[in-house]
Amino acid sequence: MVSKTDDIPASVPDCNPVDLQRDGAGDGAQEGTGTSKSSVKESCGCGHSADTAMVNGDGAHTEEGELKQDGNSEADGGEDSSEQEVIVIQDTGFTIKIQAPGTEPFDLQVSPQEMVQEIHQVLMDREDTCHRTCFSLQLDGNVLDNFAELKSIEGLQEGSLLKVVEEPYTVREARIHVRHIRDLLKSLDPSDAYNGVDCNSLSFLSIFTDGDLGDSGKRKKKGTELEQIDCTPPEHILPGSKERPVVPLQPQNKDWKPMQCLKVLTMSGWNPPPGNRKMHGDLMYLYIVTVEERHVSVTASTRGFYLNQSTTYTFNPKPANPSFLSHSLVELLSQISPAFKKNFTSLQKKRVQRHPFERIATPFQVYSWTAPQVDHAMDCVRAEDAYTSRLGYEEHIPGQTRDWNEELQTTRELPRKNLPERLLRERAIFKVHSDFAAAATRGAMAVIDGNVMAINPGEETRMQMFIWNNIFFSLGFDVRDHYRELGGDAAAHAAPTNDLNGVQAYGAVDVEGLYTLGTVVVDYRGYRVTAQSIIPGILEREQEQSVIYGSIDFGKTVVSHDKYLELLDKTSRPLKVQQHNVLNEKDESVELCSSVECKGIIGNDGRHYILDLLRTFPPDLNFLPVEGEELSAESQRQGFPRQHRHRLACLRQELIEAFVEHRYLLFMKMAALQLMQQKANKDSNKTDMPAITETSEAPTDGKADTTQTTAAEVSTDSTGPVDNSASTAPQVATESEENSSKPTTNGPVDPAGTQNGECKSPLEGKELEESIPGLAQAKELAETLVTEDGSGIDPKSREVVLNACKAVGSISTTSFDIRFNPDIFSPGVRFPEDALEDIQKQKQLLKDAAAFLVTCQVPSLVKDCLDHSTLPMDGATLTEALHQRGINVRYLGTVLEFVDKTPAKPQLEHFYRIGVIELITRCAKHIFRTYLQGVELSALSAAVSHFLNCFLSSFPDAVAHLAADELVSRRKSRKRRNRVPGGGDNTAWASLTPSELWKNIAAEAQSYYHFKIQCESVDQVVEKYGLQKITLLREISVKTGIQILLKEYNFDSRHKPAFTEEDILNIFPVVKHVNPKASDAFHFFQSGQAKVQQGFLKEGCELINEALNLFNNVYGAMHVEICACLRLLARLNYIMGDHPEALSNQQKAVLMSERVLGIEHPNTIQEYMHLALYCFANGQLSTALKLLYRARYLMLLVCGEDHPEMALIDSNIGLVLHGVMEYDLSLRFLENALTINTKYHGARSLKVALSHHLVARVYESKAEFRSALQHEKEGYTIYKNQMGEAHEKTKESSEYLKYLTQQAVALQRTMNEIYKNGSNASIMPLKFTAPSMASILEQLNIINGIIFIPLSQRDLENLKAEVQRRQQLQELGKNEEPAEGSPLELEDKIPVD
User: Is the Cα torsion angle 978, 980, 984, 985 positive or negative in sign?
Assistant: First the structure.
């Protein structure tokens, strides 16, 4: 999983103790708690509730196994030891005093681990010392070493005074100073974030909360200001509104109109100083224009900055009079420009007030697909950066360019025996990876823009290769007919991403002594560029000489090497790769432990490198037609195998994991059944025999559907796959390392398997358990039996294991071990005669895996969407949901077809629509890629706007503006043929028409996804599938890297095109890279979640705080996983009643999500909703509403109104509006929520009952009792049918009905009285209730899935005991959970919605 979006660990699940799901009857049974989503996934051994408020089902598991990447890191005695180690890290901090020139001494809290350098950073950020960069810190007159840790400094203790002493400048220091001052001047300017440079990105939260939440909460009078709140949302946010404006996406922040401090600050043309001036200490010259229009020339000298007498045209370096010599440029400018002094001070005040998360750099660049028109101002540093190959702060690093390969490999070699070492190692690995990704991206853009000289300039452009900044770049074309048999350019385009997945997989296994290359894949301007670090010495020798393992010609010549076999053998278990032999050109058998293309090269540094990992995972036979091979019946029925563009289609690692897990369950079942049989034979009671043999024989015939059935039975009895298998069977303990590469929690193997009604087995899951007494004991027996290595077991049991191994296709006969041979069906690879039987087995295994994908994983995805445990909102989250279950995106058409045939299709409409949008925009992206390759740079904006017009605009004859070229006459420019890779006729793009483009899209959808779009224009598509053009625009822009101007576009005008070339602002790269993980932090995070699940909130909270510290230690302050951590902490704070703390943590989570994932990413929308709830609880009602409106706006933009999640947003908005007595508005939102809930959950669901109740309450407040009664009756009926008369909810509802009836009668009486007696009637005062905040908050908690149970201490103890008892039961696999996989129920009386 590599792409940016791909590994959002968004859903590190939110758990809270009573976030539980009820088991009502019928429909209610699948309803999570108030949110439609907190079902506990049974299939994941860890059994924590994956609260998909994170949009993607059990994303928790995406990284689950990148956990312990290294086999031995658990060696230190598991959890306890790591908890003690943590204490080592946090030595207590102490306080020191700091005295800077011209300021009062101030206190600073430091920790003994910090380096002196970190104090420097703090001083450079503080408001009163930020203008200093060139200084040393002195303790009692001794200068401190920058790189020393504080604890190693003699005499430094609590209360020591450090002096800041100004040091003389050097050229380097002067440059750093100017750069720092420029950064301070630009600190509020968002242009870097819009331009996607220096890891800046956007955040708009502060606009909606008016600054920092913490303060504003304290400043405002709480709760009293109801009257002044203006609650009316903008028109476009109201339910049913059809307009989808773009402009509100990036509201303009008033702070961003920066106060101008200077007009110009740039390098002077008199640089560099001539020799005689150098000897006077001149370092460089600056040219400055102040706001008062004063032009000055400044000398940077070793002593500081002063005015000289030069002008634009005469050079006079003598100091001016007065020269204002100052050590800092800011001090100098403050003396010569009053406006500078005033504005700089207020700018720094504002800068320091911003939340740090708004300004810290993100680890990887995030790009924005829209941007306002930003003024392009003069900027010396930017100009200089553009022309020097600065990466990071290159010129400050000794030795100039970085040796990326050395850095990447050395960090891997760092020791990792204990926690502090592992943290250092992981931090170094992460840092160097994010630097490398940034450098590679910059280089790839330079290559495509033509700014890098090729290393083989004589060859035609598509064959060229480049080296820049110690990184090797190659283009994704099939240059030497390398991939001719595999699909030419299509294969050459797919190979880099496959290779990257391989690098990620081997990197996660992390075997000592085996090295992979730093790899980044960049798509830019229609080209795919692979950037790799360079193996030392590879450029001096021919490839043939250096490869000592694998094959350079796809298996014609093959060599092997003992050391490589030994290293690769360590990876073969976790990656499920089978050792196998192949024949080389001399017909000799050669042993390999990877695919043949995987090459081993020993670098000049003596390290063993492997590269070309494009076939790490086995081929996907559904997309690889092979002559004479039949797929299983089920695959064939769905139209497989299908022809694909290339022959490199392989299964995803997640699928392999899920498949193996499924087979493991099958294996345990079979062993248990056979043991039962033996027992039964002993009891000479042979009656069950036939039935059982039938089951145990079933899978051997390799029919996927029968296997699949058995799987379904298996999963109903809850052997939590990974957990139990690992805890009960050391034999699987070997597997637990294997799983460490990604435990198999991605594909819930749950009863969905049998969804296609293919159950042919005589015994269905449940009856199986009941019909065979003592199965559980047999299971345990089977497990003990499997644990031993097959020796010391009586022959009978050995036979049992043997049969079970045979049946599931294990490669060992004494224990369960499934592996794949990645070379099967590779063209050109031949196997020795004696391996034929084995090869047959491997082929069968591959067919079974392909069938498993189609018959288990696809239905299970659809089932998860039906019960709302997976809720994709846009293309990225949909892709992620597919990937978690091991389904490749090329199956998108198949998935949509499956949804189309599902009887429950109306309840999957949102999923279907998102799928169609994804499919269409991906087809458009494929076409756009080749379209762009034919465009020369000067026509890029015209070409992109023309393409978007053809794609989205209703204007029928979109004609490209072939710009009357700004500079030259048409005739001349014909001759100068620009050498663009693949450039032919450079104006061919202009002839594209909308109808032709849509024909191509339909053809692409048919040939690539096997999906029929019978539409000839964008309007037909929008009409047929109910899409929004703005959503299509967002998806295509994000996928291709287009950035467009932020303004309203009229897509539907039939008179003029929607886009002009002025609307295309930029084109960004789309980058895929490896994501190194923080394994220890993740362990803490998981154990914290587990504790929370068991109801130990305090302990859980501590563990999660610890995880947060470790994450910060490895990733720095900004990372998606930290975001998940903060979200969970906030939720725990909230449950434990600490509302302000919840608010502060959730605010950080929102800021981080905006910065790291993007301002309109589905996760960000979720975070906004959580924050709104905590704001409301803190009495900040207007803020809560603004946040909810923002969430609703983003949701409308990203996927439209018709989505189950919209019901939740609308219920929240409706409740808050009810609270501030805006009844009519409130009804609009609540009734919309009711409609959506009814559509997606069925009219009889508990969710709908709750919606009815909320609507009834608003009608009651309006005194419209008839409507209120009508709604409450609906709700009552649902509760009665679902929960029965005696249930608490049913009783509550009936009480409320009585109350409403009384009120209605009283009102009627009063009315009659008035009619009868006219104005002098004696009227009884009616009770009109404005709802109390507490009652509103209670309802908000319920719909958001948070439930507080008022418990006494004793109840709590009992509860914990009960939970533990259940967990023990579960581990014994005795409690047969209902097939829903419902979580533990704590309190049966609370029917949660």
Answer: negative
pLDDT of 397 reads 44
Question: How far is the CA of 345 from the CAs of 127, 129, 611, 800, in angstroms?
Answer: 8, 12, 54, 81
- Two tokens, residue 1102: 């501590």
pLDDT at 365 over 70: yes
Q: Which residues pair with 611 in a beta bridge?
A: 599
Collect contacts of 141-150 with beta carbons under 8 A, ≥24 apart. 144/116, 145/116, 146/115, 146/116, 146/117, 146/120, 147/115, 147/116, 147/117, 148/115, 148/116, 149/112, 149/113, 149/114, 149/115, 150/110, 150/111, 150/112, 150/113, 150/114, 150/115, 150/116
What is the average per-residue pLDDT within 1269-1292? 93
Q: Where does residue 488 fall: left (phi above 0), alpha (psi -120 to 50 degrees), or beta otherwise? A: left
The secondary structure of residue 1338, as a DSSP letter, is H
Give 813-849 pLDDT, tens digit per residue. Answer: 788 889 999 999 888 888 998 888 889 999 999 999 9
Measured at the alpha carbon of residue 1222, what is the angle toward residues 1217 and 1228, in degrees to the nearest 5?
75
Contact 111, 150 (CB under 8 A): yes
Q: 937 near 449, Cβ under 8 Å?
A: yes
CA 1189, CA 1213: separation in Å to the nearest integer? 8
Banded model confidence at residue 384, pLDDT cuts 50, 70, 90: low
In the chain, the percentage of residues whose pLDDT exceeds 90 is: 54
Dihedral sign for Cα atoms in the order 904, 906, 909, 912: positive
CB atoms within 10 A of CB 1031: 22
Widest pairwise Cα distance in the chain: 115
Q: pLDDT (tens digit, 9 = 90+) per residue, 1159-1193?
A: 999 999 999 999 999 999 998 999 999 999 999 99
Band the pLDDT of 706: cuts 50, 70, 90: very low
Please enumerate in sequence order all residues whose Cβ is within 8 A of that of 1188, keeping only pairs 6 or more positions apart, or say none.
1168, 1169, 1172, 1209, 1212, 1213, 1216
Written as six digits, the tokens of 229 are 């709140």
* DSSP helix/strand/coil, 1143: helix
Please enumerate in sequence order all residues whose Cβ is within 8 A of that of 171, keeping only pairs 6 or more positions apart, or say none. 283, 284
**501 with 1: CB under 8 angstroms?**
yes
**Residue type, position 1268, single letter:** A
**Is residue 222's pLDDT more than 70?**
no
pLDDT of residue 147: 86
Beta strands per DSSP E along 47-170: 94-99, 106-110, 135-139, 142-143, 161-166
Task: Give the Cα separation of 684 and 678 in Å (integer).
Answer: 9
Q: Would you tell me the crossing angle of helices 1246-1261 and 1204-1219 to the nearest 10 degrees?
A: 30
| Bridge-based pairing state of the strands 1064-1067 and 282-290 | unpaired
Q: Are strands 106-110 and 94-99 parallel, antiparallel or unpaired?
A: antiparallel
Residues 6 or more apart whose Cβ sits within 8 Å of residue 1352: none
Task: List CB contacts of 1142: < 8 A, sequence separation 6 or more.
Answer: 1130, 1131, 1133, 1134, 1174, 1177
DSSP of 1160-1195: T-HHHHHHHHHHHHHHHHTT-HHHHHHHHHHHHHHH
- How is the beta sheet containing 282-290 ordered, strand by strand? 262-267, 282-290, 295-301, 304-307
Q: How far apart are CA 1346 and CA 1355, in angstroms?
A: 19
Cα–Cα distance list, 436 to 408, 469, 505, 537 (Å): 9, 10, 18, 20
What phi-psi label fits residue 964: left (phi over 0), alpha (psi between -120 and 50 degrees) or beta? beta
Q: Give me the residues paired with residue 1323 across strands.
A: none
**DSSP assigned state of 231:** -
Q: Quickly state the pLDDT bin for 180 (edges 50, 70, 90).
A: very high
Question: What DSSP letter does each residue of 160-221 carry, written as one string?
Answer: -EEEEEE----HHHHHHHHHHHHHHHTTT-THHHHHT-TT-----HHHHHTS-HHHHHHHSP
Which is higher by pLDDT, 15 or 230? 230
Q: Supply the pTM of this predicted model.
A: 0.82
On the CB side of 841, how many CA atoms lie within 13 Å of its CA?
Answer: 19
Q: What is residue 10's DSSP assignment?
A: T
